Amino acid sequence: MGESGYLGDQPRMGFFTDTSVCIGCKACEVACKEWNGVPEAGGLDLLGMSYDNTGALGSNTWRHVAFIEQPVPSTKDVPARDVVALGMPAVGAPAPDEEPGVRWLMSSDVCKHCTHAACLDVCPTGALFRTEFDTVVVQQDICNGCGYCVPACPYGVIEKRKSDGRAFKCTLCYDRLGAGLEPACAKACPTDSIQFGELDELRERAAERVTTLHDSGVAEARLYGHDPNDGVGGDGAFFLLLDEPEVYGLPPDPVVTTRDLPAMWKRAAATAAGVAAAVAVSFLGRRR
Amino acid sequence: MAECHPVGFQWVMEAKARGAKIIHVDPRFTRTSAVSHVHAALRAGTDIAFLGGLINHVLRNGLDFREYVLAYTNAAAILTEEFADTEDLDGLFSGYDPEKRQYDISTWAYEDADATPAAGSGEPEQSGEHHHGGERHQRAARGESYGSGGASVHAKPKTDETLQHPRCVYQVLKRHFARYTPEAVADICGLPVEQFAEIAEAVTANSGRERTTAWVYSVGWTHHTVGAQYIRTASILQTLLGNIGRPGGGILALRGHASIQGSTDIPTLFNLLPGYIPMPHAHEHFDLDGFVAADAGKTGFWGNMRAYTVSLLKAYWGESAQPGNDFRFDYLPRLTGDHGTYATVQQQIEGECKGYFLVGENPAVGSANGKFQRLGLANLDWLVVRDLQLIESATFWKNGQEIETGELATTEIGTEVFFLPAAAHTEKDGSFTNTQRLLQWHHKAVEPPGEARSDLWFYYHLGRLIRERIGDDPRDAPLRDLTWSYPTAGPTADPSAESVLAEINGHGPDGPLAAYTELKDDGSTTCGCWIYCGVRADGHNHAADRKPGSEQDWVAGGWAWAWPANRRILYNRASADPDGKAWSERKKLITWDAGQGRWVGPDVPDFEVTKPPDYVPPEGAKAQAALGGADAFIMQTDGKAWLFAPAGLADGPLPAHYEPFESPVGNALYSQQESPTRQTLDSPHNRYNPARSKAYPYVFTTYRLTEHHTAGGMSRTLPYLAELQPEFFCEVSPALAAERGLEHLGWATIVSARTAIEARVLVTDRIKPLKVRGRTIHQVGLPYHWGPNGLSRGDAANDLLSVVMDPNVHIQEAKAATCDIRPGRRPRGPALPVHVEEYRSRAEEGEPTDG
Amino acid sequence: MVEPAEFRSYYGRPILKEPAWKQPDVPLYLFLGGAAGASASIAALADVTGRPELARAGRLVASGGSIASVAALIHDLGKPTRFLHMLRVLKPTSPLSVGSWILSPFSGLAAVAAASELSGILPGAGRLAGAAAGLLGPAMCTYTAVLLSDTATPSWHEAYGTLPILFAGSALTSGAGAALLLVPSVETGPVVRAGLIGAAAELAAARHAETGLGLASEPYRTGRAGKLLKAARALTAAGAGLSLVARRNRAAGAAAGVAYLAAGLCTRFGVYAAGVESARDPKYVVVPQRERLRR
Ligand SMILES: Nc1nc2c(c(=O)[nH]1)N[C@H]1C(S)=C(S)[C@@H](COP(=O)(O)OP(=O)(O)OC[C@H]3O[C@@H](n4cnc5c(=O)[nH]c(N)nc54)[C@H](O)[C@@H]3O)O[C@H]1N2
Ligand SMILES: Nc1nc2c(c(=O)[nH]1)N[C@H]1C(S)=C(S)[C@@H](COP(=O)(O)OP(=O)(O)OC[C@H]3O[C@@H](n4cnc5c(=O)[nH]c(N)nc54)[C@H](O)[C@@H]3O)O[C@H]1N2
Ligand code: SF4
Ligand code: SF4
Ligand code: SF4
Ligand code: SF4
Ligand code: SF4
Ligand SMILES: [Mo]
Question: Where along this sequence does the record place binding of [4Fe-4S] cluster 2 (chain A) (predicted)?
């Protein structure tokens, strides 16, 4: 039996998103919408967040590409070799009065298909369920729009669609997986930033990639969500990042809220008993 | 490249993963820069200086691939004494006529050219008639006919194999580029000397026997008054380094629209026939022999031009084309001058051009100087627009900028507009020819919606109806005699695209032809486009071949079909040394197998397969037979790669740095400021910003976003794309924002002599001020996708541009011009032209800035 | 305010989604459920101890409150049929599922008790239903705390030890408040005492929420939530004070009742607002999680 509780022969499927090769083309965002018939995010807002104008994951954006512009030390501060080795060098300008260079990080975010998925745990209707691929999917005909999954998700992924009232998120293309196809976003990704496959294999591949990057001087490469011992038992969709997770809008150390649920119930039960006791005590004593 | 060719860019990422060093040369820090090792930010319009600097580095330090250069290039050729370089004439080559702003190219020739006619041509060069170059050449943008091989020279040059002769090409080159020092590059381009040195080191270290460097470009290099010379500069560099015809080398032109390569191969251009056969000229080409004689290179594969042309005429006029009637050569239309798009628009404004078809383009937004375009459209009798969407070019009469400003009134526009919905590529069969000359077939996936029809349907039935209506007027014989029968199918009687491909491939007495070498000039073969001959060899549609990469070798010849002859790397004879051995095991492609007596290797050899490396052409040989066993550049009349171009260019045999026509600074190298042969267009609706104008102190450059497509008809209309880049914006550096008081996400008004447009402001470190000629030059970035229609709307960047063109191919200078930028929104209505006029008069009064 | 030097984020954008529930529906649902739960228990004991007016009022409040609470939930869901999906399964990992399985029988029982009370029909069954509702009452008071805590919303989750007490205390004062408002003073002795216990618990818990949860306490102290919770505290204290003279002064009793009820509303809206604020500002996610990682 898997950590997530799923029983079966089908290996767990997931994503390794290697942001070090993402070119921010947003093909994943669009392919997802096309395949899944997701409505447009609504509103044509220029957000001024670099080239990101959809802002965040949500009910109408199941893949979201983040763009982060960062100043980096100008080449004069760093020996040229190191700058090259970074893989993300400065706009090279060693002239003395130079302002800092820039690096541009792009990253395609998605539902993490958590091993311990809070959304699924708290869903009162069973609309959210775990598939045979060990992914987390909403059955739209069951979802009653209670919205509980929304604040439960430690990554802020799932959301209620305003026009509809029900909750929506990435299905890891459950329909395509069933038909033996890879998810639409991964299929569309030109640089293989989004890699789909058996999770175990992806984790190995990711570890190798980090080593390669470290060896080539990209010291800041790190994995995120790959660790089965983290607060959510590891993500079914994990990432290689080039900066701290929060820079990409990801929580640094997410914990599935239901980890504390037994303690919560205990506390609530004890308190309920306290209420009973308090009421009972109040009725003791003089009859007036 | 990541922005505009993201799918192709996967190979760059793969190369990077395998250890390639990626260098991105671009004024802006883009998605491409983000994943490159080095980003070289230079000022828009200065790449000739940058590349010239690299050439100088190679020549000064003797870093060229000498064996390759000696064997395969014209480095050793000796030039005439009359030739004078820009070094001698301060920025001009010999032969310049300042009145006409044109060159007489006769002095750019090899020494004793006339005395040494090309092997076998038998006839001396007609004096005074320099076909490849000069005025007519320029007017007809004849340079475009070099899409498949260079201009012809009818002479084998004298050579000095030691490369010491002061007039040999190598020495001329060395002198010419001597002033392109790293310091000059820094001064002109704004590129720090250290960074230039790093790039020079990387490029040269990665070239030679064991390694090759590739240069990849697109319109950042072509949309300049010196665009063709940009590519020439890269060609010289690559040829010197031995990076042509070898795996991993090349100068790769990333093309635009999905089949834009196809539309030059089987051209929509006014000056070409299929396969880069030039369009005959009304005053020069009276018969087939005259046409072929004047244009066919007598040696090299263009020596067979008569066979290509006759087969084409047979494809057009079938049985009617016979030897006795010159194969109906006289049925072909003729050129009388420049009928390029901008010249045509001027004729519209002048009332000479009355009717216009716009099929799959949106010039009201996409072409330089939007107002100029719209004024042209507004002065037609009729306009047919076939498009997927109701684009601005079909609605200019109600919502063009000029309606708002009162310069035009809907009620006074007489143009009758016919809008015909077109089927998209998913709604019809057909082929795309892409960047790497690869024909890829696409199958219809869905029926077109409603009234939409394929373009093939439209032209076929239009032709059918016209042919039904014309009587027996002899004038209409060319139409009556056309081969015009294609099987149709389905409820809309759509013609079969495969039957068109079959016609293009051509056939002989024994059925479909397998290769263009089978073409005959006696009328026994037909072929709609000689370079495509073989795509349907054995009657099989090879464009539809889809053998997965994992099931074949690395050349992947089983995926689709590349012209010519399914050859993947052009001039691949150069991948072997003159003796036919690989330069190195690592870079092995085609080699001579003496045992078998043929060239072997994974790619289709770009050489006669059985011609040995030591072949010496006999006296009097013609066409390919006149090329030796080491003449790798088989489409050239002399079989050589040209470091120096003795013919074929309107603006010089060598590239020289000229400032963009609108530039904020003076030319650091010559007193000749801008390209002397630039093509300007005189019209009150096409005003130019004075060079070095204080009123327009900033450089702007236009470009694309991944999220949108060109003039926007295919992206601004789609919700999924519109939301990704919802509004027109300009990109400026924090320093420029501070200088002009621009606020992030606020509005800016950008002004040129043409108009003023407004855009939201993105202040970003990705745009960098450059130190140029001792001054700080700010650049403004403008994506050019917006217009008034669709979901995401905004002003059009092209309204800001003027029409000024490269003289070789008539491309507009869209990448470098000047402007002013101010905070706030632009004036509206009639106040707008008034505002622009005020600026203009100030600019014309103003003194140029120094530097 | 976000102090940029302290932590990094993606353009200051929230990492978490704000609770998707509607306001005022869900804070009302929380409040009504609590008041109903406490009232049901009070009613049951009042019935046993022979306080008919208190029992009657309690039953009516329990029933009215719980039905209104269901109505608020249904309104939040958008379609009435969607409530039925809640009862498809019983999932212990979902406080909303468990809550629905508490709320539904409770509101049913409370309704039966109230109907019998009003109509006089089947008094035995009515009493039995009332007693059963009274037993479920305490659960009604606290499950909503788990409902909020079992989310990633920092100020709710971090307060999972505190919110049950806060909500229970607040439910008691609300139940007491309703009784003080509706019931003649001769029968209000127990509710005054229950109210005082509740008030003490509520004030202590609120204080802990506002100070004892590290950064997650900040939203309880500041902004709209801070104002609401401050008001709640003042109202609770006032209610408690007034309740002491409720037996002598009917008007004071009624005022105490109103104060208690108002305090209950303010508490729920305040807690809700604090949660929303903590989800909105990424620092409440990043800073504590970073600290946790550093440890
Ligand atoms: N997503 C998307 N893809 C497209 C298109 C599209 O509209 N959208 N259009 C297609 C078409 S038609 C074409 S032609 C191609 C064009 O493809 P590209 O040529 O890649 O397109 P651009 O963005 O116009 O220009 C490329 C870059 O040139 C830079 N540049 C400007 N001036 C100079 C200069 O003087 N020197 C150098 N070195 N760089 C300069 C610009 O900053 C820009 O980043 O893309 C095709 N692909
Ligand atoms: N400032 C500036 N201007 C530029 C450039 C620049 O870089 N800067 N780039 C230039 C370049 S490289 C180009 S290619 C042009 C592009 O400029 P245009 O070609 O004018 O612009 P597009 O929007 O690509 O127009 C193509 C139209 O074809 C329609 N279409 C698509 N498929 C079909 C079909 O099968 N049949 C028919 N009939 N219609 C179809 C689309 O809906 C679309 O409206 O812009 C040029 N203009
Ligand atoms: S990321 Fe959120 S929505 Fe996705 S499985 Fe985990 S908890 Fe559920
Ligand atoms: S909104 Fe739908 S998916 Fe989310 S918890 Fe409620 S029923 Fe489950
Ligand atoms: S897996 Fe499917 S549903 Fe999920 S983001 Fe990718 S395309 Fe969308
Ligand atoms: S498709 Fe791939 S490369 Fe493009 S934005 Fe998405 S993840 Fe990045
Ligand atoms: S749109 Fe077509 S041509 Fe452009 S990158 Fe994608 S696949 Fe290539
Ligand atoms: Mo293009």
Answer: 32, 170, 173, 185
